[in-house]
């Protein structure tokens, strides 16, 4: 990890700690929890797309696997939530291997359609064979470990964002490692990767697994917070929402995934005042931001900071 | 060390290579020349595993490379550069070299993500070794620039540096001087010679720049329409009648004043 990222991680931790102090434990904090859950999935998608250059429109599938597998295991088999969450991550990883097989042969638009198909298959399975069918099921236990259950909004906020911090730390370590370099290299030239002795197939499978495991964790956290789930939360719409988050935040930067997730999650809440026009304004903001901040919020912010710094250096 | 035996490769109706055989001695610089479309790049692609031949064997240090994946062949010690430079354009010059160290190192997703002590140590070694290689090819002053910002001459040299980072026994250079000016080509020639002399790396050079080819090669293989038409030292090849014909056409034309010696 680089010096700037260590600093960013500290600032990030400070912000997370302070949010509940100012927001109180009401509705705003609930939105904060959803932001964190979305951020987890978005970080995975960011590594997959922004770094490794693989497209996915099927992340909702992994998110759904995380939610359903861990809920069913804890409701019907009485497993502790921590264990069922871990098992769900393993199931999601296996599903990622299944998805990676066609993905290895496809690129760009074709890969997008293949992953979209994968997400839809999971969605159909949840509708047809999932517990409760299209109407879903409830009474899912809250997250807890060692006999201690987290059921307060503030507690859950800290839980979710601690996971975001850990996942972020893990991901940044990967990005600045041998493995992360290989992922970025694969994005630029698969041919050269092969000529350097990189096993491109193994890399692709692993990065799909990584993003699936993150999404599964997020899905489990979602289910055990809501205590009720139904397939509609895991449709194509969610996959596209994730894509929007990652692109608005800046696909080439991990922090962009977090910023994008927070912005896209909060935005509809802020637009409530426009009443029936809110969807229209939401669409307009997204379109304009993609027109004027095409690189995404975080990369543009970094550019501006560099510019400011070079101006101030020039003055001295 | 490299024994190419009876290679045939067809692309549809086109016979790209017909019964091509030759062997390369350890530590040699072997040039592969011939008119455009003679099959030079196809042959490099077969040796490096990008194409599979329809017939024949590529024996490298006693092992047949045919049917091996490009990555596997690279791990066996064959590295290469590309005619249309294939750098990792969005990565820095140093990072490009560091990717070259990939096959010689181990850290995976889990170990890297947890930043285990072994990973930190390995990462330092990768960086150290890569910096040495940058120094070796005189690109240290460019280390933090994105590779795509470099002029073509330096891009080609960076590609050679990246190939060296894999610690190859054999390097395949595909037109390394294309797009380079005279001064850059001379520097390139010096680097290639230095690699052979100091690192004892065997080199196969596909090149159109005859000054470079004649200046640094120990031996030359000439391909024309997918067949080997001549082989020998630079001097022998320059005098070979078939070569002159292949490059310049029939004898009458040569007598009109063309000269194969530049």
Structure description:
The complex is a heterodimer of chains A (316) and B (262). Chain A has 316 residues and is an all-alpha fold. Chain A has one domain. Chain A has 13 helices and two strands, in the order H-H-H-H-H-E-E-H-H-H-H-H-H-H-H. In chain A, strand 1 (144-145) and strand 2 form a beta hairpin. In chain A, helix 2 packs antiparallel against helix 9 (200-226). The relative contact order of chain A is 0.17. In chain B, helix 3 (93-100) packs across helix 5 (117-136), helix 3 runs parallel beside helix 6 (152-165) and helix 5 (117-136) packs across helix 6 (152-165). The mean pLDDT of chain B is 91. Chain A binds chain B through residues 1, 170-171, 173-174, 177-182, 184-185, 187-189, 191-200, 206, 210, and chain B through 48-50, 69-72, 74-75, 79-80, 82, 86-91, 95, 98-103, 105, 107-109, 112-115, 119, 122-123, 126, 162-163, 165-166.
Percent of residues in β-strands of chain B? 15-25%
Q: Rg of chain A, please?
A: 20 Å
Instruction: Report the biggest beta sheet of chain B as strand number plus sense, adding barrel if it closes.
Output: 6 strands, mixed
Query: Taking all residues together, what is the mean pLDDT of chain B?
Result: 91
CATH architecture annotation of chain B: 3-Layer(aba) Sandwich
Give the number of helices of chain B.
Answer: 11
Summing up helix and strand content along with how strands pair, one would put the structural category of chain B as: alpha/beta
Head-to-tail CA distance between termini of chain A: 31 Å
Number of strands of chain A: 2
The helix/strand series of chain A, from N terminus to C terminus, equals HHHHHEEHHHHHHHH
Q: Using DSSP, what is the number of strands of chain B? A: 10
Low-confidence segments of chain A: none
The total domain count of chain B is 1
- The CATH superfamily label of chain B reads P-loop containing nucleotide triphosphate hydrolases
N-to-C SSE string of chain B, H for helix and E for strand: EEEHEEHEHHHHEHEHEEHHH
Q: Predict the CATH topology of chain B.
A: Rossmann fold
Physical arrangement of strands within the biggest beta sheet of chain B: 6-7-8-3-9-10
| 3D shape of chain A | globular
- Strand numbers in spatial order across the main sheet of chain A: 1-2
Number of domains of chain A: 1
Most extensive interface between two protein chains, with residue counts:
A-B, 28 and 41 residues
